[in-house]
Design a protein that fits this description.
Strand content: 15-25%
Bound molecules: iron/sulfur cluster
Number of helices: 6
Helix content: 25-40%
Number of domains: 1
Oligomer: single chain
Shape: globular
CATH class: Alpha Beta
Order of helices and strands: EHHHEEEHEEHH
Distance between the termini: 44 Å
Number of strands: 6
CATH architecture: Alpha-Beta Complex
Largest sheet: 6 strands, mixed
Radius of gyration: 18 Å
CATH topology: Lambda Exonuclease, Chain A
Structural class: alpha/beta
């Protein structure tokens, strides 16, 4: 597929933000100079770096695998989706014709919600396009509970990713500010709340 040079290229973490509140993605792309860096974001980065050091020391048994080759911090992109991002880990199992498994670290004990599943599916789709190998599942490692959750990258999940990217693109390229979420509790803890005069 030919890529338009003026097309907005999103990052995978936008899927999570869009699911929380579409306005966050709108502000990020339509008013990029106002994006704050919060303590929570910096804390999250530090936790990921610490985990990466542990990852290099442990076996793959945590992921239910006997062997495989680990690739750390892998940059991926998809011209088809207009999406890019850096996945925490890719495990290569079984050589040339084998499996490629994207792994994401998450700072939560909660069960993986739909937006996290969409993120791992997006990494899988980009991995297929970049490395040219089919990807049928991804793994999520909770940094708090040390539990690993398997996510099957189904056709339904792939379609959700395509739909979410399409909706973000329509919003950003059309410069259409979306409605605030119905649940205004989200606004109380939102780093963008001072820009949303209509919610609090
Ligand atoms: S304050 Fe509320 S409406 Fe505004 S960006 Fe945050 S969550 Fe969305």
């Amino acid at each position: 597929m030919e890529e338009r040079s003026d097309r907005t290229i999103f990052v995978v973490t936008d899927l999570k933000q869009y699911s929380y509140c579409p306005r966050i993605v709108f502000y990020t792309y339509c008013l990029p100079l106002i994006r704050p860096v919060t303590f929570k974001m910096e804390e999250g980065r530090a936790a990921h770096d610490e985990e990466m050091a542990r990852e290099r020391r442990r076996t793959l048994a945590l992921y239910g695998l006997e062997e495989g080759i680990r690739h750390y911090h892998v940059w991926l992109e998809s011209a088809e989706l207009g999406l890019r991002g850096r996945v925490d880990l890719v495990i290569e199992v079984g050589g040339e014709g084998g499996e490629r498994i994207p792994v994401e670290y998450k700072q939560t004990r909660r069960e993986a919600g739909r937006h996290i599943r969409q993120q791992i599916a997006a990494y899988g789709m980009m991995l297929e396009e970049t490395w040219g190998r089919p990807v049928r599942r991804g793994l999520i490692l909770s940094l708090l509970s040390r539990q690993v959750t398997e996510v099957l990258i189904t056709d339904e999940l792939r379609q959700e990713v395509r739909e979410a990217v399409r909706a973000m693109r329509e919003m950003v390229e059309g410069e259409r500010m979306p409605e605030a979420p119905r649940r205004r509790g989200k606004c109380r803890v939102c780093e963008f709340r001072r820009f949303c005069n209509d919610v609090l």
